[in-house]
TrEMBL record:
Gene3D superfamilies: 1.20.120.1460, Aldolase class I. The keyword Amino-acid biosynthesis does not apply. This is tRNA-dihydrouridine(20/20a) synthase. The keyword Transit peptide does not apply. The active site is at C108. It is an enzyme of class 1 (oxidoreductase). InterPro entries: Aldolase_TIM, DUS-like_FMN-bd, DUS_fam, DusA, tRNA_hU_synthase_CS. Its EC number is 1.3.1.91.
Length: 342
């Protein structure tokens, strides 16, 4: 499949640079609408898709899961799976669709994912991960990367993490994002697994010392750009932010082009970003989509600002109504301004 003429696929060097700051893959959250919205806040940040399972693409033929807008670049596709041949085929489909990077999920602890023997449970089988990565690399030219944990269950992270990295890196894979906490596969829900196992940033930074040639991004519990800068100063190449970027998108993303990527650029104004979504929304509605599918990702745009509650409330209450269209953005902005003025 040839790439569309308007493809803005970027090279591997540029993806490595973009990974200096990335928005984490988040199921049900970082869909294409969310990514388009995030892109209006930062031109440079690397955006990840939600995890797409290799069987859904290869056996289920669910190629619509790969749809995205060219404006989203740089954008990485995250795959879930543990069958090297199937992952290779899925990676090929992703690269053909124009994704800048293909990432393998070795961090997700959900039951559904465990039953398919993929996600965090693969931390126990670095040999299989290496086989998967090798097969994916052999089938695409774009970067193939891994997002993993520091260990699972009763594993000792200081032992398993370096072993995992060295075995997977032996395939030639040189970019890893490490969620700096274990996943406990029994007894904790996926949500609890993002909060309860303690964070160990020191262990992740130590990996950079052990494997200086690897490009290592750190993830987990980072809620402000100051902390991201401190972690980059400790020698890591990248910081990945998940929940904070979703819930406070302006706070996290609006300043990164200047503060993290060193661009001489104006910080986007949140009102202009809200208004900038209107043509995208209009187009989505024309194609039969619903307003709420987009506006649900925009609720946090004014987080912490006067009147933010009114913005949220108007979007969430009216966004689901039949016939709701992009003019809701103007009404929600008016509500917010009026509330802020009193
Ligand atoms: C709603 C939600 C869905 C997630 N889905 C995925 C996923 O599909 N793939 C993945 O690797 N991690 C997933 N994660 C984990 C995040 O990518 C990230 O590792 C985790 O939230 C820790 O980062 P944070 O503290 O910055 O949020 C998800 C997290 C959330 C909150």
């Amino acid at each position: 499949m040839a790439l569309p003429d308007d493809s803005k696929q970027i090279g591997q060097t540029d993806v490595r640079r973009a990974a200096r700051l990335s928005v984490a893959p988040m199921m049900d959250w970082t869909d294409r609408h969310c990514r388009y919205f995030h892109r209006l806040l930062s031109q440079k940040t690397l955006l990840y898709t939600e995890m797409v399972t290799a069987p859904a693409l290869v056996k289920g033929g669910a190629l619509h899961l790969l749809d995205y807008a060219p404006e989203e670049h740089p954008v990485a596709l995250q795959l879930g799976g543990s069958d090297p041949r199937e992952l290779a085929q899925a990676a090929r489909l992703g690269a053909q669709a124009g994704y800048d990077e293909i990432n393998l999920n070795v961090g997700c602890p959900s039951d559904r994912v465990q039953s398919g023997a993929f996600g965090a449970v693969l931390m126990k089988d670095p040999g299989l991960v290496a086989d998967c990565i090798k097969a994916m690399q052999d089938s695409v030219d774009v970067a193939v990367t891994v997002k993993c944990r520091i260990g699972v269950d009763d594993q000792e992270p200081s032992e398993v993490l370096p072993d995992f990295l060295s075995r997977v890196a032996a395939t030639g894979c040189d970019r890893f994002t490490i969620h700096a906490r274990k996943a406990w596969l029994q007894g904790l829900s996926p949500k609890e697994n993002r909060d309860i196992p303690p964070l160990d940033y020191d262990l992740v930074t130590e990996m950079k010392g052990l494997f200086p040639a690897l490009h290592i991004s750190i993830n987990g519990g980072i809620t402000d750009i100051g902390t991201a800068c401190d972690l980059l100063d400790r020698g890591l190449e990248g910081v990945m932010i998940g929940r904070a970027a979703y819930h406070q998108p302006w706070d996290i993303l609006a300043k990164v082009d200047s503060q993290i990527f060193g661009m001489d650029t104006d910080v986007p104004d949140p009102v202009s970003v809200a208004l900038g979504m209107k043509p995208y929304i209009q187009n989505h509605l024309k194609q039969g989509g619903r307003l709420h599918q987009i506006t649900r990702h925009m609720l946090g745009l004014f987080a912490g600002r006067p009147g933010a509650r009114h913005w949220r409330r108007r979007l969430s209450e009216d966004g689901v109504k039949n016939g709701a269209d992009e003019s809701l953005i103007d009404r929600a902005l008016d509500d917010m301004r009026m509330a802020a003025a009193v």
